[in-house]
Design a protein that fits this description.
- Keywords: Membrane, Transmembrane, Transmembrane helix.
- The protein is mainly alpha-helical.
- The chain has one domain.
- It is built from seven helices and no strands.
- Helix 4 runs antiparallel to helix 6.
- About 30% of the residues are buried.
């Protein structure tokens, strides 16, 4: 999770994906989606400073770790094993993406309820499209 957010949310990757990835192709769209939890090295004059600029990425990692811990798939699944672990990790990342976006929205440049709902949709969409990576990484993590 930390690697996914650290690499794909980095200023270098987000700049590259914004300039080079073709939004009209499926691959280009996916490369742009990977850049959703973008973090910055400076606030660029954003209200709230650097923490507000990077809050979404920080909350995504913290909430995903917490949800991975709280969703004990192996203990509650009818058929414990790798399939339940995979979907538990994926679901945790979808929820973490949506929650991180909602919780970070009030600190953004244009805080509003509509903006928070739109950000939650983007965050959950990011979690849905990229959560399989976390689901795969969580295999074997719990017994």
């Amino acid at each position: 999770m930390l690697l996914l957010v650290g690499i794909c949310g980095s200023p270098a990757y987000t700049g590259w994906a914004g300039a080079q990835a073709d939004p009209a192709s499926a691959g280009g769209y996916y490369l742009r989606v990977l850049a959703w939890p973008a973090w910055r090295l400076d606030a660029d004059g954003q209200p709230g400073g650097l923490l507000a600029a990077d809050l979404r990425a920080v909350l995504l990692v913290v909430l995903a770790v917490a949800l991975l811990y709280l969703l004990p798939a192996a203990q509650v699944a009818r058929v414990p094993g790798p399939v339940s672990q995979f979907f538990s990790g994926w679901a945790a990342y979808v929820l973490a993406g949506g929650l991180a976006a909602v919780l970070a929205a009030p600190f953004g440049p244009d805080p509003s309820l509509l903006g928070a709902l739109q950000d939650a949709s983007s965050g959950a969409g990011y979690g849905f499209l990229c959560g399989w990576i976390i689901g795969t990484a969580s295999l074997g993590g719990r017994a």
